[in-house]
Design a protein that fits this description.
By secondary structure, the chain is mainly α. It has one domain (about 1-390). It has 17 helices and no strands. α2 crosses α6 (about 105-125), α5 (about 85-100) runs antiparallel to α6 (about 105-125) and α11 (about 235-250) runs parallel beside α15. The radius of gyration is 20 Å and the shape is globular.
Length: about 400
Protein backbone atom coordinates (compact mmCIF):
# COMPACT_ATOMS: atom_id res chain seq x y z
CA UNK A 1 0.00 0.00 0.00
CA UNK A 2 2.91 2.36 0.73
CA UNK A 3 4.33 1.52 -2.70
CA UNK A 4 0.97 2.25 -4.35
CA UNK A 5 0.71 5.58 -2.56
CA UNK A 6 4.22 6.60 -3.59
CA UNK A 7 3.89 5.51 -7.21
CA UNK A 8 0.26 6.53 -7.41
CA UNK A 9 1.16 10.08 -6.38
CA UNK A 10 3.18 10.66 -9.55
CA UNK A 11 0.81 8.75 -11.83
CA UNK A 12 -2.31 10.45 -10.51
CA UNK A 13 -0.65 13.87 -10.49
CA UNK A 14 -0.04 13.36 -14.19
CA UNK A 15 -3.63 12.22 -14.63
CA UNK A 16 -4.97 15.33 -12.87
CA UNK A 17 -2.87 17.74 -14.93
CA UNK A 18 -3.65 15.99 -18.21
CA UNK A 19 -7.35 15.89 -17.30
CA UNK A 20 -7.33 19.65 -16.72
CA UNK A 21 -5.70 20.27 -20.10
CA UNK A 22 -8.05 17.78 -21.73
CA UNK A 23 -11.02 19.56 -20.19
CA UNK A 24 -9.79 22.89 -21.53
CA UNK A 25 -9.34 21.33 -24.96
CA UNK A 26 -12.88 19.93 -24.93
CA UNK A 27 -14.20 23.37 -23.97
CA UNK A 28 -12.36 24.91 -26.92
CA UNK A 29 -13.57 22.19 -29.29
CA UNK A 30 -17.17 22.61 -28.09
CA UNK A 31 -17.09 26.36 -28.77
CA UNK A 32 -15.05 26.54 -31.97
CA UNK A 33 -15.19 23.35 -34.02
CA UNK A 34 -18.26 22.41 -36.07
CA UNK A 35 -19.53 18.94 -35.05
CA UNK A 36 -18.66 17.55 -38.50
CA UNK A 37 -15.02 18.68 -38.21
CA UNK A 38 -14.65 17.38 -34.68
CA UNK A 39 -16.39 14.08 -35.47
CA UNK A 40 -14.12 13.47 -38.48
CA UNK A 41 -11.08 14.28 -36.34
CA UNK A 42 -12.19 11.72 -33.76
CA UNK A 43 -12.66 9.14 -36.51
CA UNK A 44 -9.11 9.72 -37.74
CA UNK A 45 -7.77 9.40 -34.19
CA UNK A 46 -9.50 6.03 -33.93
CA UNK A 47 -7.93 5.06 -37.24
CA UNK A 48 -4.54 6.12 -35.88
CA UNK A 49 -5.08 3.96 -32.81
CA UNK A 50 -5.88 0.93 -34.98
CA UNK A 51 -2.86 1.51 -37.21
CA UNK A 52 -0.73 2.10 -34.12
CA UNK A 53 -1.80 -1.24 -32.69
CA UNK A 54 -0.05 -2.89 -35.64
CA UNK A 55 3.33 -1.40 -34.62
CA UNK A 56 3.88 -4.19 -32.05
CA UNK A 57 2.46 -1.98 -29.32
CA UNK A 58 2.38 -4.99 -26.99
CA UNK A 59 6.15 -4.55 -26.59
CA UNK A 60 5.44 -1.92 -23.95
CA UNK A 61 4.37 -4.34 -21.23
CA UNK A 62 7.08 -6.80 -22.26
CA UNK A 63 9.71 -4.06 -21.88
CA UNK A 64 8.39 -3.03 -18.47
CA UNK A 65 8.47 -6.64 -17.29
CA UNK A 66 11.97 -7.32 -18.65
CA UNK A 67 13.42 -4.10 -17.20
CA UNK A 68 11.85 -4.86 -13.82
CA UNK A 69 13.83 -8.12 -13.92
CA UNK A 70 17.09 -6.33 -14.77
CA UNK A 71 17.22 -6.89 -18.55
CA UNK A 72 17.56 -3.25 -19.60
CA UNK A 73 18.82 -3.76 -23.16
CA UNK A 74 15.54 -5.45 -24.03
CA UNK A 75 14.47 -1.89 -24.86
CA UNK A 76 16.86 -1.75 -27.82
CA UNK A 77 15.93 -5.21 -29.10
CA UNK A 78 12.25 -4.37 -28.87
CA UNK A 79 12.71 -1.07 -30.72
CA UNK A 80 14.64 -2.76 -33.53
CA UNK A 81 11.89 -5.35 -33.89
CA UNK A 82 9.27 -2.58 -33.98
CA UNK A 83 11.23 -0.66 -36.60
CA UNK A 84 11.40 -3.66 -38.92
CA UNK A 85 7.72 -4.39 -38.42
CA UNK A 86 6.64 -0.78 -39.08
CA UNK A 87 6.35 -1.51 -42.81
CA UNK A 88 3.11 -3.36 -42.05
CA UNK A 89 1.13 -0.49 -40.45
CA UNK A 90 2.65 1.95 -42.94
CA UNK A 91 1.46 -0.15 -45.89
CA UNK A 92 -2.02 -0.62 -44.43
CA UNK A 93 -2.37 3.12 -43.81
CA UNK A 94 -1.41 3.78 -47.45
CA UNK A 95 -4.00 1.27 -48.67
CA UNK A 96 -6.72 2.93 -46.61
CA UNK A 97 -5.60 6.38 -47.80
CA UNK A 98 -5.72 5.23 -51.42
CA UNK A 99 -9.24 3.86 -50.86
CA UNK A 100 -10.45 7.27 -49.69
CA UNK A 101 -8.59 8.94 -52.56
CA UNK A 102 -10.50 6.80 -55.06
CA UNK A 103 -13.76 7.82 -53.35
CA UNK A 104 -12.86 11.50 -53.52
CA UNK A 105 -12.62 12.00 -49.75
CA UNK A 106 -9.57 14.25 -49.66
CA UNK A 107 -9.60 14.89 -45.90
CA UNK A 108 -9.52 11.20 -45.02
CA UNK A 109 -6.94 10.52 -47.75
CA UNK A 110 -4.50 13.08 -46.33
CA UNK A 111 -5.36 12.02 -42.79
CA UNK A 112 -4.37 8.40 -43.28
CA UNK A 113 -1.17 9.45 -45.05
CA UNK A 114 -0.20 11.38 -41.91
CA UNK A 115 -1.13 8.38 -39.78
CA UNK A 116 0.99 6.02 -41.86
CA UNK A 117 4.10 8.21 -41.62
CA UNK A 118 3.93 9.23 -37.96
CA UNK A 119 2.43 6.38 -35.90
CA UNK A 120 5.50 4.08 -36.15
CA UNK A 121 7.66 6.83 -34.61
CA UNK A 122 5.12 7.42 -31.85
CA UNK A 123 5.05 3.72 -31.02
CA UNK A 124 8.83 3.28 -30.93
CA UNK A 125 9.64 6.46 -29.01
CA UNK A 126 6.75 5.84 -26.60
CA UNK A 127 8.55 2.81 -25.15
CA UNK A 128 10.55 5.17 -22.92
CA UNK A 129 7.55 5.20 -20.57
CA UNK A 130 7.58 1.41 -20.30
CA UNK A 131 11.31 1.44 -19.53
CA UNK A 132 10.73 3.93 -16.70
CA UNK A 133 7.76 1.88 -15.49
CA UNK A 134 10.00 -1.18 -15.24
CA UNK A 135 12.53 0.89 -13.28
CA UNK A 136 9.67 2.05 -11.03
CA UNK A 137 10.85 5.57 -11.85
CA UNK A 138 7.41 7.14 -11.81
CA UNK A 139 8.80 10.59 -11.01
CA UNK A 140 10.72 10.88 -14.29
CA UNK A 141 7.80 9.23 -16.04
CA UNK A 142 5.63 12.07 -14.78
CA UNK A 143 7.99 14.85 -15.87
CA UNK A 144 8.65 13.36 -19.30
CA UNK A 145 4.94 12.77 -19.73
CA UNK A 146 4.29 16.43 -18.96
CA UNK A 147 7.06 17.31 -21.40
CA UNK A 148 5.01 16.04 -24.32
CA UNK A 149 1.44 16.30 -23.03
CA UNK A 150 1.58 20.00 -22.22
CA UNK A 151 2.83 21.00 -25.72
CA UNK A 152 0.32 18.54 -27.18
CA UNK A 153 -2.72 20.19 -25.59
CA UNK A 154 -1.46 23.75 -25.99
CA UNK A 155 -0.67 23.08 -29.65
CA UNK A 156 -4.16 21.71 -30.32
CA UNK A 157 -5.79 24.65 -28.57
CA UNK A 158 -3.78 27.16 -30.63
CA UNK A 159 -4.48 25.35 -33.91
CA UNK A 160 -8.20 25.16 -33.04
CA UNK A 161 -8.31 28.97 -32.88
CA UNK A 162 -6.02 29.71 -35.82
CA UNK A 163 -6.86 26.96 -38.31
CA UNK A 164 -9.80 24.82 -37.17
CA UNK A 165 -9.60 22.03 -39.75
CA UNK A 166 -9.49 18.26 -39.38
CA UNK A 167 -6.09 17.83 -41.07
CA UNK A 168 -4.43 20.66 -39.11
CA UNK A 169 -5.63 19.12 -35.84
CA UNK A 170 -4.51 15.62 -36.81
CA UNK A 171 -1.06 16.69 -37.99
CA UNK A 172 -0.56 18.76 -34.84
CA UNK A 173 -1.66 15.86 -32.64
CA UNK A 174 0.54 13.20 -34.23
CA UNK A 175 3.48 15.51 -34.96
CA UNK A 176 3.83 16.79 -31.39
CA UNK A 177 3.53 13.27 -30.00
CA UNK A 178 6.28 11.94 -32.28
CA UNK A 179 8.68 14.85 -31.66
CA UNK A 180 8.17 15.21 -27.90
CA UNK A 181 8.25 11.49 -27.18
CA UNK A 182 11.42 11.24 -29.28
CA UNK A 183 13.05 13.76 -26.94
CA UNK A 184 11.80 11.87 -23.87
CA UNK A 185 13.17 8.61 -25.29
CA UNK A 186 16.59 10.16 -25.93
CA UNK A 187 16.75 11.61 -22.41
CA UNK A 188 15.74 8.28 -20.88
CA UNK A 189 18.44 6.21 -22.57
CA UNK A 190 20.97 8.96 -21.92
CA UNK A 191 20.13 8.92 -18.20
CA UNK A 192 20.11 5.13 -17.75
CA UNK A 193 22.45 3.99 -20.55
CA UNK A 194 21.05 0.42 -20.59
CA UNK A 195 23.94 -2.03 -20.33
CA UNK A 196 22.47 -5.21 -18.90
CA UNK A 197 21.66 -8.09 -21.23
CA UNK A 198 18.61 -8.32 -23.41
CA UNK A 199 15.95 -10.91 -22.68
CA UNK A 200 15.00 -12.45 -26.02
CA UNK A 201 12.11 -14.33 -24.46
CA UNK A 202 10.58 -10.94 -23.67
CA UNK A 203 10.73 -10.02 -27.36
CA UNK A 204 8.77 -13.16 -28.21
CA UNK A 205 6.42 -12.35 -25.35
CA UNK A 206 6.02 -8.82 -26.69
CA UNK A 207 4.95 -10.22 -30.06
CA UNK A 208 2.35 -12.36 -28.30
CA UNK A 209 1.11 -9.33 -26.37
CA UNK A 210 0.93 -7.31 -29.59
CA UNK A 211 -1.32 -9.91 -31.18
CA UNK A 212 -3.37 -10.02 -28.02
CA UNK A 213 -3.68 -6.24 -27.69
CA UNK A 214 -4.83 -5.69 -31.27
CA UNK A 215 -8.26 -7.15 -30.61
CA UNK A 216 -8.59 -4.97 -27.53
CA UNK A 217 -7.71 -1.84 -29.52
CA UNK A 218 -10.22 -2.77 -32.20
CA UNK A 219 -12.89 -3.26 -29.54
CA UNK A 220 -11.99 0.08 -27.96
CA UNK A 221 -12.09 2.05 -31.22
CA UNK A 222 -14.90 0.25 -33.02
CA UNK A 223 -17.51 2.47 -31.37
CA UNK A 224 -16.24 5.64 -33.05
CA UNK A 225 -15.66 3.93 -36.39
CA UNK A 226 -19.10 2.31 -36.54
CA UNK A 227 -20.80 5.48 -35.30
CA UNK A 228 -19.01 7.53 -37.98
CA UNK A 229 -20.12 5.24 -40.81
CA UNK A 230 -23.70 4.62 -39.62
CA UNK A 231 -24.62 7.86 -37.82
CA UNK A 232 -22.22 10.45 -39.27
CA UNK A 233 -19.54 12.76 -37.79
CA UNK A 234 -22.01 14.91 -35.81
CA UNK A 235 -23.16 11.85 -33.84
CA UNK A 236 -19.51 10.96 -33.20
CA UNK A 237 -18.99 14.44 -31.73
CA UNK A 238 -22.00 14.02 -29.42
CA UNK A 239 -20.78 10.58 -28.33
CA UNK A 240 -17.27 11.89 -27.70
CA UNK A 241 -18.52 14.57 -25.33
CA UNK A 242 -20.86 12.10 -23.59
CA UNK A 243 -17.97 9.77 -22.78
CA UNK A 244 -15.24 12.35 -22.17
CA UNK A 245 -15.60 13.01 -18.43
CA UNK A 246 -16.48 9.43 -17.37
CA UNK A 247 -13.42 8.15 -19.22
CA UNK A 248 -11.21 10.65 -17.42
CA UNK A 249 -12.69 9.83 -14.05
CA UNK A 250 -11.95 6.18 -14.76
CA UNK A 251 -8.37 7.24 -15.50
CA UNK A 252 -7.84 8.09 -11.83
CA UNK A 253 -8.02 4.37 -11.05
CA UNK A 254 -5.75 3.25 -13.87
CA UNK A 255 -2.63 4.03 -11.87
CA UNK A 256 -3.23 0.87 -9.85
CA UNK A 257 -2.53 -1.72 -12.60
CA UNK A 258 0.29 0.47 -13.96
CA UNK A 259 2.02 0.62 -10.60
CA UNK A 260 1.28 -3.02 -9.80
CA UNK A 261 2.83 -4.56 -12.95
CA UNK A 262 6.50 -4.31 -11.84
CA UNK A 263 5.63 -5.75 -8.41
CA UNK A 264 3.52 -8.55 -9.87
CA UNK A 265 6.42 -9.50 -12.15
CA UNK A 266 8.43 -10.82 -9.21
CA UNK A 267 5.67 -12.70 -7.41
CA UNK A 268 4.03 -16.09 -7.83
CA UNK A 269 0.41 -16.52 -8.89
CA UNK A 270 -0.56 -17.53 -5.36
CA UNK A 271 1.06 -14.44 -3.87
CA UNK A 272 -0.70 -12.20 -6.39
CA UNK A 273 -4.12 -13.71 -5.71
CA UNK A 274 -3.55 -13.37 -1.98
CA UNK A 275 -2.90 -9.65 -2.42
CA UNK A 276 -6.43 -8.96 -3.65
CA UNK A 277 -9.13 -9.91 -1.14
CA UNK A 278 -10.96 -6.98 0.39
CA UNK A 279 -8.89 -4.43 -1.52
CA UNK A 280 -10.86 -5.14 -4.70
CA UNK A 281 -14.17 -4.49 -2.96
CA UNK A 282 -12.85 -1.26 -1.45
CA UNK A 283 -11.80 -0.13 -4.92
CA UNK A 284 -15.19 -1.00 -6.41
CA UNK A 285 -16.99 0.85 -3.60
CA UNK A 286 -14.84 3.95 -4.23
CA UNK A 287 -15.66 3.79 -7.93
CA UNK A 288 -19.39 3.67 -7.23
CA UNK A 289 -19.05 6.82 -5.11
CA UNK A 290 -17.43 8.56 -8.08
CA UNK A 291 -20.30 7.41 -10.30
CA UNK A 292 -23.03 8.72 -7.99
CA UNK A 293 -21.35 12.10 -7.58
CA UNK A 294 -20.99 12.48 -11.32
CA UNK A 295 -24.60 11.46 -12.07
CA UNK A 296 -25.90 14.24 -9.81
CA UNK A 297 -23.42 16.82 -11.09
CA UNK A 298 -23.47 15.99 -14.83
CA UNK A 299 -26.12 18.49 -15.93
CA UNK A 300 -24.42 21.38 -14.15
CA UNK A 301 -21.04 20.36 -15.55
CA UNK A 302 -22.29 20.31 -19.13
CA UNK A 303 -24.20 23.59 -18.76
CA UNK A 304 -21.03 25.24 -17.53
CA UNK A 305 -18.38 23.61 -19.71
CA UNK A 306 -20.09 22.26 -22.84
CA UNK A 307 -23.29 24.31 -23.27
CA UNK A 308 -23.57 23.36 -26.96
CA UNK A 309 -23.61 19.64 -26.08
CA UNK A 310 -26.18 19.44 -23.25
CA UNK A 311 -28.00 16.79 -25.31
CA UNK A 312 -25.18 14.45 -24.29
CA UNK A 313 -26.01 14.63 -20.55
CA UNK A 314 -28.32 11.56 -20.32
CA UNK A 315 -25.85 9.48 -22.31
CA UNK A 316 -22.99 10.65 -20.10
CA UNK A 317 -24.82 9.89 -16.86
CA UNK A 318 -25.50 6.30 -17.85
CA UNK A 319 -22.04 5.86 -19.35
CA UNK A 320 -20.39 6.88 -16.06
CA UNK A 321 -20.92 3.30 -14.86
CA UNK A 322 -17.90 2.48 -17.05
CA UNK A 323 -15.75 3.73 -14.17
CA UNK A 324 -16.48 0.60 -12.16
CA UNK A 325 -15.36 -1.76 -14.91
CA UNK A 326 -11.85 -0.25 -14.90
CA UNK A 327 -11.05 -2.73 -12.13
CA UNK A 328 -10.43 -5.26 -14.92
CA UNK A 329 -7.07 -3.60 -15.54
CA UNK A 330 -5.74 -4.91 -12.24
CA UNK A 331 -6.62 -8.51 -13.14
CA UNK A 332 -5.13 -8.32 -16.64
CA UNK A 333 -2.01 -6.67 -15.22
CA UNK A 334 -1.51 -9.71 -12.98
CA UNK A 335 -1.99 -12.09 -15.90
CA UNK A 336 0.50 -10.10 -17.99
CA UNK A 337 3.13 -10.05 -15.25
CA UNK A 338 2.94 -13.83 -14.92
CA UNK A 339 3.17 -14.46 -18.67
CA UNK A 340 -0.08 -16.41 -18.58
CA UNK A 341 -0.27 -16.68 -22.37
CA UNK A 342 -3.26 -19.02 -22.59
CA UNK A 343 -5.35 -16.91 -20.23
CA UNK A 344 -4.33 -13.70 -22.00
CA UNK A 345 -5.24 -15.16 -25.37
CA UNK A 346 -8.61 -16.27 -24.00
CA UNK A 347 -9.23 -12.79 -22.61
CA UNK A 348 -7.96 -10.70 -25.52
CA UNK A 349 -9.71 -12.79 -28.15
CA UNK A 350 -12.98 -13.54 -26.38
CA UNK A 351 -13.58 -10.10 -24.90
CA UNK A 352 -12.97 -8.04 -28.08
CA UNK A 353 -15.17 -10.36 -30.13
CA UNK A 354 -17.99 -9.87 -27.62
CA UNK A 355 -17.40 -6.11 -27.49
CA UNK A 356 -17.31 -5.67 -31.26
CA UNK A 357 -20.43 -7.77 -31.74
CA UNK A 358 -22.40 -6.05 -28.96
CA UNK A 359 -21.39 -2.53 -29.97
CA UNK A 360 -22.03 -3.05 -33.67
CA UNK A 361 -25.46 -4.62 -33.08
CA UNK A 362 -26.30 -1.98 -30.48
CA UNK A 363 -25.52 1.00 -32.67
CA UNK A 364 -27.22 -0.41 -35.76
CA UNK A 365 -30.42 -1.24 -33.87
CA UNK A 366 -30.65 1.54 -31.28
CA UNK A 367 -28.22 4.27 -32.29
CA UNK A 368 -26.16 5.99 -29.59
CA UNK A 369 -28.21 4.48 -26.75
CA UNK A 370 -27.49 1.04 -28.11
CA UNK A 371 -23.78 1.86 -28.25
CA UNK A 372 -23.70 3.20 -24.67
CA UNK A 373 -25.47 0.16 -23.22
CA UNK A 374 -23.39 -2.25 -25.30
CA UNK A 375 -20.15 -0.69 -24.03
CA UNK A 376 -21.29 -0.95 -20.41
CA UNK A 377 -22.35 -4.59 -20.79
CA UNK A 378 -19.20 -5.60 -22.65
CA UNK A 379 -16.88 -3.88 -20.16
CA UNK A 380 -18.66 -5.54 -17.23
CA UNK A 381 -18.30 -8.93 -18.89
CA UNK A 382 -14.63 -8.20 -19.52
CA UNK A 383 -13.99 -7.45 -15.83
CA UNK A 384 -15.80 -10.61 -14.74
CA UNK A 385 -13.94 -12.76 -17.27
CA UNK A 386 -10.52 -11.37 -16.25
CA UNK A 387 -11.34 -12.12 -12.61
CA UNK A 388 -12.30 -15.71 -13.44
CA UNK A 389 -9.17 -16.31 -15.52
CA UNK A 390 -6.90 -15.00 -12.78
CA UNK A 391 -8.40 -16.99 -9.94
CA UNK A 392 -8.76 -20.25 -11.83
CA UNK A 393 -5.07 -20.24 -12.79
CA UNK A 394 -3.09 -22.87 -10.93
CA UNK A 395 -0.03 -21.96 -8.89
CA UNK A 396 3.05 -21.03 -10.96
Amino acid sequence: MVYLLQSGWWINLGTVIISVFSLLLYMVFARILPPEVYGTYQYLLSGAALIGALTLSGMNNAIARAVARGNDRTLYSANWTQARWSIVPFSIALIVAFYYYLHGTTTLFIGFLCIGFLTPFISIFGTYASFLQGKQDFRHGFWYGMGWNVPYYIGLIIVSYLYPSTIALLFTSLGIQAAAQGIAYYRTIRAYRPQEESDESSIRYGKHLSVLSFGTVVATQIDTIVAFHFLGPAAVALYSFATAIPERLAGFFKFIPTAALPRFSNKSSMEIRGAFGRRVWYAIFSMFIFVLIYIFAAHSIFSLLFPTYTDAVPYSQVYSLIIVSSIAGLFTSALTAQQNIKELYAYTIGVPIAQIALQTIGIIMYGLWGLIIARLVSQSLAAAFAFILLFRKKES
